[in-house]
């Protein structure tokens, strides 16, 4: 086990207030006639210093685990593009061209102006588990990495209207089925339709030299207990139009699973241990009370184990 993983969870406590208070935004409107924003192609990549920044930012987004600077802030086995398909461009897979123009945004719910800078740092903190990374946390505000990543996002949104919730932004939401969800049904779906790529134990697949082939979904190399994806509703929305890869299609809004199946398999995926919530309050009950008042299994008993132990 790497030394960084032995840090007690309490040492990971998030000290940056703005990062503890990330919130979900309202859903984007439906596209009219299935037409989404026409993002630029690779042949439109600019030249010069700005072009360099865009390329570096795109590389950091797609191959985060390989990018020399970005990888220092990754404490698990994830790339940004694992959850933002099409290299961050696919509609209904939380595309960066949809995100760019809605920040900075004041949110009454967390009572401050949310900037893109802080949104990206939040993704490092939770989805990429930056607390267990070589750098020990997310990139510093105004660092070259954040400039590059924002250059990529800005470029991807060229010509898009500012301040508008564009069709295709974010993930689609999938309403909770009337009879709730079943973790055991989810297990059968997972084994039949997901395990072939993500492995039976959720650990994904990596080459011998550590290159990711399929991302891990739970365990020490997955997103942590504070990430948006640990919410059963959020992951169900992602899974419904994005997975199984090659069968669902976010841009065509084509699903391979029913709403019920998406909720069931999302619940199964999120009924396993993963790295601790960086907003750890000292024990599971207090952390649950302060941060987990939503559809998730943190501090819930599943298969005889109370979840939220973390993997450190
Ligand atoms: C494990 C899956 C996952 C990974 C990995 C991930 N994200 Fe996200 N991201 C999400 C989810 C889910 C949301 C939706 C908001 C929420 O509930 O957190 C989101 C939202 C965002 C948003 C806001 C989108 C909007 O329209 O408001 C941005 C920007 C973003 N992510 C950037 C990144 C960057 C940059 C990285 C890599 C450093 C990254 N994400 C890695 C799952 C992920
Ligand atoms: C054919 C292989 C394949 C199958 C089958 C598959 N996935 Fe995936 N999955 C992927 C790949 C590849 C990615 C990353 C996509 C990218 O980087 O563009 C991914 C990403 C994800 C993510 C993003 C979260 C993360 O932490 O990286 C989730 C959640 C997920 N898959 C769940 C599922 C579920 C649930 C099923 C079964 C219903 C499933 N997948 C079936 C290949 C697959």
From TrEMBL:
Keywords: Heme, Iron, Metal-binding. It comes from the Bacteria. GO terms for molecular function: electron transfer activity; heme binding; metal ion binding. The keyword Iron applies. Residues 181-273 form the Cytochrome c domain. This is C-type cytochrome. It comes from Vreelandella halophila.
């Amino acid at each position: 086990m790497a030394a960084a993983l032995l840090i007690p969870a309490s040492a990971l406590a998030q000290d940056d207030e703005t990062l503890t208070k990330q919130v979900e935004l309202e859903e984007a409107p439906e596209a009219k006639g299935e037409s989404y924003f026409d993002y630029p192609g690779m042949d439109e990549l600019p030249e010069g210093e700005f072009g360099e920044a865009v390329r570096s930012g795109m590389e950091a987004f797609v191959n985060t685990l390989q990018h020399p600077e970005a990888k220092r802030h990754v404490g698990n086995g994830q790339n940004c593009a694992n959850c933002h398909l099409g290299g961050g461009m696919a509609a209904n897979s939380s595309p960066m061209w949809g995100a760019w123009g809605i920040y900075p945004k004041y949110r009454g719910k967390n009572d401050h102006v949310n900037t893109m800078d802080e949104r990206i740092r939040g993704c490092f903190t939770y989805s990429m588990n930056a607390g267990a990374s070589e750098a020990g946390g997310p990139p510093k505000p105004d660092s070259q990495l954040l400039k590059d990543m924002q250059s990529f996002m800005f470029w991807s949104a060229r010509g898009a209207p500012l301040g508008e919730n564009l069709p295709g932004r974010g993930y689609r939401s999938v309403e909770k089925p009337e009879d709730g969800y079943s973790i055991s049904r989810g297990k059968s779906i997972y084994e039949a339709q997901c395990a072939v790529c993500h492995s039976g134990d959720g650990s994904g697949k990596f080459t011998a030299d550590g290159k990711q082939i399929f991302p891990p979904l739970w365990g020490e190399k997955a997103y942590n207990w504070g990430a948006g994806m640990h919410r059963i509703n959020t992951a169900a929305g992602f899974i419904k139009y994005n997975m199984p890869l090659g069968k669902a299609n976010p841009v065509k809004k084509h699903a391979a699973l029913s709403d019920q199946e998406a909720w069931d398999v999302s619940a199964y995926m999120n009924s396993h241990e993963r790295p601790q919530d960086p907003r750890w309050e000292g024990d599971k009950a207090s952390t649950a009370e302060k941060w987990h008042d939503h559809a998730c299994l943190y501090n819930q008993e599943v298969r005889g184990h109370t979840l939220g132990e973390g993997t450190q």
